[in-house]
Amino acid sequence: MIETITYADGAVRLLDQTRLPTEVVVHDCRTAAELAEAIRTMRVRGAPALGIAAAYALALGAREYPGEDPAAFRAHLERVAAEVRATRPTAVNLFWAVARALAVADAALPQGVAAAREALLQLAHRLREEDVAINRQMGAHGAALVPDGARVLTHCNAGALATGGYGTALGVIRGAVEAGKRLHVYVDETRPFLQGARLTAWELHADGIPLTLITDNMAGYFMAQGKVDLVIVGADRIAANGDVANKIGTYSLAVLAQAHGIPFYVAAPLSTVDLGLPDGAAIPIEERAPTEVTHLAGQRIAPEGIAVANPAFDVTPARYVTAIITERGILRPPYEAALRTALATADDSGVERPASEEPPASGARAR
Ligand code: MRU
After folding, report:
1. Which residue range forms the structural domain that includes residue 18?
2. pLDDT > 80? residue 357
């Protein structure tokens, strides 16, 4: 199994996603600041993986506080939480994990600072393990939507590398393959960061799942040719009405899929749902460095001195989404009721769910 995030000898070990596929390098983080930097620079990325990394960052931060004073420890933890929240604004899993970590620390603090430190580390381990189990559940549910022989198009990387393991959208693909179905996957390269070409192609190829890599602007061509049976993507944040924020380019795919009568599925754990936002308009959209667009592998490909935009995500309105695959099953429109029921079931089952936090001030807003 691909080890996206592990913990050994006091270090959080990341499979460095800026180096794949040409180099398989492990990047060690020993401090919260190092891990926050790894999140910002996308050595670790993908919504569920960001949640796990955020929990580990709080565990590392807790270790950095040298004293035993509960109030000072708590203040220190709040500063670490603020640093982690400021890394990337769109994936709600990161904010969810920070809130969950603070709640766990508060529950353990009456037993002392050492107990809170240990509880935070155990939480991070648990989130990672739970995530793999959740992805397998999604894979099993979602496999039912994938016919034998299907040609599936995916965008970005919603695989093992974006999660604790197995993946969300790629988890559904893996689930279908494990169920004995023969699939062919069209992989969008996913400009500008190339998560599709670099990461998804690497993962699927390693698993022996047949794939064809295409550039993003080829998707409509292949749909028009009748060569795509369904689209499946992950999500960074799902608003209460079912609007989905995901990697830039997802919206165009959803519109194309509808125009061609092709089902468009979103696979995401319930930790990606933000009931605090009524619709996608309020989802904060990260704007990344222009150099990701003007440069390719360190080489300038556009003139200097021009305006460049680099929104990292877009919002797909719920009306384009055929179904949302979660660990609690397949949700169909109207999504608000379906999401609330799924989350209530999750709460009944004892899964902690801290209140969603206000989106950070940084980052552009979806229109
Ligand atoms: O900018 P990234 O690479 O973190 O964006 C990742 C995506 O958009 C994924 O599709 C999403 O996080 C789901 S990952 C299971």
Report:
1. 5-135
2. no
> Ligand 1 within 6 A of 51 CB?
no
Count of Cβ atoms closer than 10 Å to residue 340 Cβ = 13
Residues 123 and 269 in one domain: no
Single-letter residue type at 295: H
CA 286 to chain centre: 14
| Beta strands 237-239 and 244-247, pairing class | antiparallel
Q: Which tens digits make up the pLDDT trace of 299-356?
A: 999 999 999 999 999 999 999 999 999 999 999 999 999 999 999 986 544 344 444 4
What does R_g of the chain's alpha carbons equal in angstroms?
20
Q: Which of 130, 117, 184, 196 is nearest to 158 (CA)?
A: 196
188 lines ligand 1 (CB under 6 A): no
Q: Are 248 and 312 in contact (CB under 8 A)?
A: yes
Q: How many independent structural domains does the chain possess?
A: 2
Structure tokens at 106: 């508060």
Kindly give, in sequence order, each residue whose CB lies less than 8 Å from that of residue 259, ignoring residues fewer than 6 positions away. Answer: 223
CA of 92 to the centre of ligand 1 (A): 11
